Amino acid sequence: MAGGIFSPLGSCSELEKANCHPLVCLLCHEPYQHPCLLDCYHNFCASCLRGRASDGRLRCPLCGHPSVVRGGTGLPPVDRLLQFLVDSSADSEEDVQCANCDRCCTKAELDTMYFCNTCGQPLCAPCREETHRARMFTRHEIVSLSKRTKDIHKKCPLHEEPYIMFSTEKKSMLCINCFRDMQGESRAHCIDIETAYMQGCQRLDQAVMAVKELQTSTREAIVLLKAMIEEVRNSASEEEAAINSLFSRMQEQLSERKKTLLKAVQSQHEEKEKAFKEQLAHLASLLPTLQVHLVTCSAFLSSANKAEFLDLGYQLMERLQRIVKLPHRLRPAQTSKINSEYRAEFARCLEPLLMLSPRRSVVGSAGGIGPGITGTNM
Fold first, then answer.
1. Is the entire prediction scored with pTM above 0.70?
2. What CA dihedral angle connects 318, 321, 327 and 329, to 10 degrees?
3. Cβ within 8 Å of residue 328, ≥6 positions away
4. What is the pLDDT of residues 71-87, one digit of tens each?
5. Which residues contact 329 (CB under 8 A, 6 or more apart)?
6. Which structural domains are found in the chain, ordered by start?
7. CA 158/CA 153 separation, integer angstroms
8. For the segment 170-205, what is each residue's pLDDT rounded down to a tens digit?
9. How many CB atoms lie within 10 A of CB 196?
10. Using N-to-C axis directions, what is the helix angle for 342-356 and 193-303, rounded to 10°?
11. Would you tell me how many other CB atoms lie within 10 Å of the CB of residue 175?
């Protein structure tokens, strides 16, 4: 009966599709058998909840709220109210026979049946008119069949006496013996059954009105949340489209600027390389000249006598001095560093796109703009 009960209901949509009859379990989809009430006020069959408790707690299969369970059964208490409704529903499905004429009524005719709480017998409509209109039955309590009073609710199980009072303090019915056994201050909270019934109906009406208001508010909240879910879905689509569009435009701008920057780098490279090669050629041509003159000086000193030295030595010295004084470019006129200022150029090409249509940023708890992007980095 409870096959697959250990797979929890996943979402509200699944709950809406499920059988939501008030007397049918949401797990096994069968009429309740010993319905148990959890702390979250959800009901399930005892067999559907058996084995789910862990460390004295039982998590609701519907909403996940944990409930404290006591005792060795590992189950919450049986919901007496729901069990009463289940029993009443079962009773209403049984065939009803009039105690006076033995006429059996169909299910369609049950609304026209009556019940005499005094006699404890069902009556059909004709017999109620014919038999229970006599004066001797004037004190009999005749109600519709659905509102009959069962024996369990007529007499006190402790004293076997009919109930006559109701304790508003203990919320329980009292027979005459229960009333006599009570202490004096507790008797002040006792009223008769009829008055208690009227007061209870009024309080129940108030409670029902509060629940109806909550029901209306809940439905309005559900409609609002569904609308917001649709709105957030549309907003996400729009945001994704805007991001993709801006990213494409940024890619185009960056690609164009990249080409320009690469051309600038290539141009600087060619200019610097040409200048360095020209300077290298000049120095390469100067080195042999210096070598030749050094060898010449060495040979002249070793071979010339004093007269020859005085005749040609000063001419050699003037030549060497003129060679040294020539404008030789021994140091590079420029650095080898190529600088395209690509960071600033990329930022300048993106600035018009980012400032054109400013969009609100998603600021996180640490002041970040989106995941992994902080205001400082941006």
1. no
2. 140
3. 282, 283, 286
4. 777 888 888 888 888 87
5. 279, 282, 283
6. 35-87 (no CATH), 94-151 (3.30.160), 197-331 (no CATH)
7. 12
8. 888 898 888 888 888 888 888 888 888 898 899 889
9. 18
10. 150
11. 19
